[in-house]
């Protein structure tokens, strides 16, 4: 038999995603996972993704990766759009440091799932690194920090004593420079040099560049040295500090005055808070100075007027540690979203008179917390920070409420719009300044942590997802963080969005209570809302009608016996995941990831035969036809977790104990474990069984990457190919059911076994290894000559069939609209597949029963249905059950939807991720 040439291999696997993990360079941390189509040039193939697009520009700060948002509403003028386009064309410096996991990949096409990149990066997540290294607490009050700051201020080539007036004036200048075109005159470089070394830093004690002692490179090196000083600045590589940024800027210290335990006060004196705000503003200033220079030199290199030596680039990457690069990300967020304005000082006690009311209006009030209320305006001026995009952020909050189907969302959105109209755009968000005499001379406070930790940390094991609990207040610091737009990349934006939604809904805030577990869930107005950080949310997301938006799930399923209030659900991490952290994470095994997902398996590229491949199927059962099933979710139950029982929950009657906890005040410090009960009816025998499944393991669900079937699958349709021996190419299979044989081939290296969901329910007590070991007798598996690596009697992947005999195909108006493949058969031994109709969707699969939607119907329906509406149509109680079983068993699972991608590509992706379970759904 002739071997396949390289050209034939490329044709066969056209449209098949390939999975990689490659390092981005020195000093960049763990490798970067990626999915590519190296043998395809068509845009409709190369642009396929396994995650959703950010739906609003107001949420763009969730990631540091370059991206394009899908703006739903835009009322910008032509001049504004032209200005923005001009800015986008400018070369900007991007530090090779981004959030982990990649937030672009955190919201998979399947609700409650993530993409390939995020799944691999969970093992090296920022929050996990924080757990491993130990969060240093609030560094400002530690004696080592005070000593380091004093040492820096006394150094000859370090930081000067900078007055807050200078800080604000320089921030204003940097904001102006950031919006200007690059000026390449030498006098500008000299001006920057003089401003930096006469007002902010001491000049270098030795010549750093003999060619040009005043160059931008010299200034950059000096700024990097100061910002990289240990134990001096806030390290925003820690997730908790990214969340605390807004708290440090806008939260009001209340000391020990609030005795109800609900205060978000700092527990420290106002002087301590002012000092930390001073040092934070100074850090922002230094980062902005550095970023403006990096942008200038980057644009100059782009235009050919600057020359950067490789040695300078290498030194920068080495000296600019992770903390410096995160300071640069903060500087970018500041320059993009914040304006600093200087206004005349208002007369005493008249600042708030005549101000409009409303939650946006409260942001205009001066929060004068200084010990000397006039200290920051002794020059006759008041400096204030203001958000540039207040209305954009308000529209984004309204958009979030609509997409999440918030109760009475229309009236709530109207209130937001009314508040927006009551406050002129660009209203300043007042920021008090500290008196400079407080810096580095304060005595250590008796409180070692002037800011409370909003996160509740597990004591038993590191956590891949951030746990976040806080106290909500009307127009609190979380709302101010969101409205200003000053937020740092990471999952924190998901928590801030929900907090802003609740803080500006007085009725919801009063009914739910102020203490919020934003990494859990809550019941409100006949619906439940769950963070995707909670396993219950990820499981319920698979239901029909469930909605996902920015890390939150809205569901009609309510825990049995629970009234309105917050819910904190406990789940245990799997043993396998707990071991794969930091340097042991799978992401570091770059060669293993690529080898175990290679399209050619373990074969020699020079000796690949057609007989080495099959086309896998999930719904061919020759010995036993699976029964027709009807599955209904009957109840979601929550029980007090061990060690956190409320006194009322110690009763013998669990139902009574649960009802005693319906009041929010009874559940404030309670954690629960979740179970789900399903009724499974065998329609063949009209027999119903109930199954109770515990959602006890904190597993992950990943959307299988979409693929496009090759035009050249017919190359495999030779009489000697095992595919012909196992598949009836006429489309008729056992029991008269139709089999769609489109898809990519799978190399025999990838052993797998298919188990129908009904059979899996009967074998819930059987281990995964035992289920995988039965693959050799699976009726759909061809008898292949085993290779060296696949000679064991165990399959690599378990495919849970959630398609066969569950429900009839949906009507045409129920089919998720997407590019549909129509097939034409020229004869009984060859089949050609047409290209996708539309390049914009990520679901290039047609009706599995043969034939597809007509072009006219597709075009007509596509105009009527939004992509988010299509996504809501997926899901059923059957899919909830499949996820629940995986959560009970502790199986991380890949979710492969038939019309979106083929089973062969899903099996290869499972190999890349190291997953052993695939849930195959219709």
TrEMBL record:
Biased segments, Polar residues type: 647-664
Low complexity composition-biased segments: 447-458
Region (Disordered): 431-463, 643-664
Spans through the membrane: none
Superkingdom of the organism of origin: Eukaryota
Protein name: Helicase-like protein
Naturally occurring in which organism (per UniProt): Remersonia thermophila
